[in-house]
């Protein structure tokens, strides 16, 4: 087991990383502003579920494939770029809804959750980041290596939930006010579309 002081240091670093502007928290922010805070929470949980995939991949050494193989990295990157462009098109075409219908119902939360999972898993940069970051806090002297990776993954998920959840609530509160205006809804949808395109371009330019 990893000592508490090491986990505390890891947690502090991951919170700071989550606070830094990046694709994930921007994604949560835009979805919360457009669809409401509950939608942002659903996306947050989806993104964090994706972290389980990356944590397991690192623990099993699968992420090394993305770092060593240009073909594997490019394939997953193309999937991610395509999905982001699909989201951008959907946001661009979205029409303003009446205020009372602007909130996400329970049936729409699963697609939002799934959207977060897919976006996280199809970003090979996350896998490579985990592969380079986690080993710094792993030590055979603490015991078996795999449980240590899983511990770090759980702490990383906790920090992401806390930070992204806060972003969702803050952006959702702003979105509540803006959703009362049809013009504001149109603007938010266009902004979300531009953000998705920007994220797609950034991912397309990413290298190992």
Q: Could you give the count of β-strands?
A: 0
Taking pLDDT < 50 over at least 5 consecutive residues as the criterion, the unreliable ranges are: 98-102
Overall domain count: 1
How would you characterize the largest beta sheet?
A: none
Q: Indicate the mean pLDDT.
A: 80
What is Rg?
18 Å
Number of helices: 9
Structural class: mainly alpha
Written as H for each helix and E for each strand, in order along the chain, the element string is HHHHHHHHH
Q: What best-fitting shape do the alpha-carbon axes yield?
A: globular
Distance between the termini: 31 Å
Helix content: over 70%
Strand content: under 5%
Main location: membrane
Pfam family, one: LysE
Membrane topology: Multi-pass membrane protein
Protein name: Threonine/homoserine/homoserine lactone efflux protein
Task: Summarize the structure in words.
It is a single chain. The protein is an all-alpha fold and about 210 residues long. The chain has one domain (about 25-205). About 80% of the residues lie in helices and about 0% in strands. It has nine helices and no strands. Helix 3 (about 35-60) packs parallel to helix 6 (about 105-120) and helix 3 (about 35-60) packs antiparallel against helix 8 (about 145-180). The protein is globular, with a radius of gyration of 18 Å. The two termini are about 30 Å apart. The model is unreliable at about 100 (pLDDT under 50).
